[in-house]
Design goal:
The complex is a heterodimer of chains A (236) and B (339). By secondary structure, chain A is an alpha/beta fold. Chain A is 39% helix and 27% strand. Chain B has 13 helices and two strands; from the N terminus they run H-H-H-H-H-H-E-E-H-H-H-H-H-H-H. Classes of the chains: A alpha/beta (236), B mainly alpha (339). The structure holds adenosine-5'-diphosphate and magnesium ion.
Amino acid sequence: MSEPTLSLKDVHTYIGQHHILQGVSLDVNAGRATVLVGRNGAGKSTTLRTIMGLYPVRSGSITLDGEAIQNRKPFHIARLGIGFVPEDHAVLTTLTVEENLRLAMFKESEDGWRRMESIFRLFPDLKRFLHSKAGVLSGGQKQMLAISLALVLDHRIVLIDEPSKGLAPVVVEHLGKSLNQIKDTTTVVLVEQNFYLASQVGQDYFILDDGRVAHHGLMEDLVNDHALKRKYLGIG
Amino acid sequence: MAADTGLAVSAGRGGFDARRWGAWIVSVGIWFIPLLWIDVITYMTLTIAGLTMGALLFLTASGLTLIFGLMDVLNLAHGAFFVWGAYAGFSLLNYLNTLGWVEMASLGQSMGSLVLTLLTALVVGGLLGILLEKIIIQRTYGNHLKQILITMGAALVMTEIIKVFWGPNDEVILVPAAFKDSWDLVDIVVNKFRGVAIVVGVAVFAAIQLVLQRTRLGITVRAGVENREIVQVMGYNIERIFTGVFAAGAALAAMGGVMFAIFKEQIYPGMGDETLIFALIVVIIGGMGSVAGSFLGALMVGLAFNYVAFLVPKLALGVNIMIMAVILLIRPSGLMGRK
Ligand SMILES: Nc1ncnc2c1ncn2[C@@H]1O[C@H](COP(=O)(O)OP(=O)(O)O)[C@@H](O)[C@H]1O
Ligand SMILES: [Mg+2]
């Protein structure tokens, strides 16, 4: 396999006085969907936020296609080509759906509008509510908009934090299908508590536990490894 | 305009909402109550004075509300930008007067002098704002106590520097000739500069709204007010946007300062303190971060202050604090603030 697109080596992150990530190492390969799983509080969100530069890296390195990006500002990391969909359907509720998307497009561009068209094919609801304030959307629609905000630009990688959180099963079903389409054209790193969704979308997996990577491998192997799932995910 | 929108949204789709209409009628009607004790001519004069004060307050409060709302910075140095604007304008007017463009000015020259003076205040305020944000404010993000202490300190220093350059005493600021006299509208005497102040206030309000609602920069700023993290991870350099907003707020305060000085025909180093208190009241009434709310709040404070100052002079400041308390009871986030 070629060089990983995104690589974390022995990353330590503190939030305030708390030592949260205690040496996370993981590789994300281009063109694949990587899922991070693990119990609540394992450090999955902190890992994504550290990659985005939202928390400072105390030690260790993060590289994007070979270039060190640790401790750059979040806007700089975004411009280098990492899209981020934060937890809890993060959209700008006081702006319209269209304003949200145009803001994410950064500059008006042919390419941006072309991508917008494919986003509308993926999530037709967004086109219907284009001129509504994002605040009136349902939870599922907000999540679709949140994901779309990271797809408007042609990012090298998109990080998505728990998209299924708080959504009804049918909506999660739909979301899974969309994520599967997205991963065909984009390298995706997905944090997901819903193991069914994680297993539907993910190709590579990393299990986080207490701020470290406890296990990693191919998703198809994890699906059948009931002992591992019981130990780290409390399911099986 | 702003009140209209609130009504349209809350009344829903065509339904007649008696409670909303009631609130609307009460909030308009309340401003006619002073007519019970004041004759019409005096009432009109006080109303114009109130609108003038509102327009002037808005200039200062608009910057303050943006800085609160977008940056979550409690900026008590805002009054110092106000004073610097006033003194910069004072010096410029003195200079322009030596060219015959102030006390002896024609209408055109008066307008030219005023525009130059406002621009000078904007530039001085903007530059000081950039300086303060880069040197001091940037180190205090997320820490309100630190902000209060450090911006109070900065305000003291900035005021002391004023005293060094211009002396500690009251000075008379020159008023361009064309704005000195009054219009006589059926017994109601309107000082011309009051008209100018109202026009400038409304124009600045319209300009800010236009930028905020219609431009990409404005969308970015509004987005940053709501959630700076999303804006950052979209690739926007939020720190630079913060510096820009802080500078714009400082520039508006400085412009408010020189307008206020010309209105009062007087400047003194402490003039920022009182205005800061009024501006804070306006921002809290309007809702932090809402420019339209500040506009409404400023008009309310200006009007209430003038009516009450005429009827019961001792209560003039108190009534505004009362308005603030009542509005906070009904709407804890202010007239147009977000929850
Ligand atoms: N802002 C914070 N301050 C202190 N501790 C935090 C903060 N955010 C997260 N943590 C702690 O860091 C650990 C990892 O959190 P997180 O990365 O959100 O976990 P996950 O996303 O895997 O559920 C948890 O123990 C959590 O309590
Ligand atoms: Mg999480």
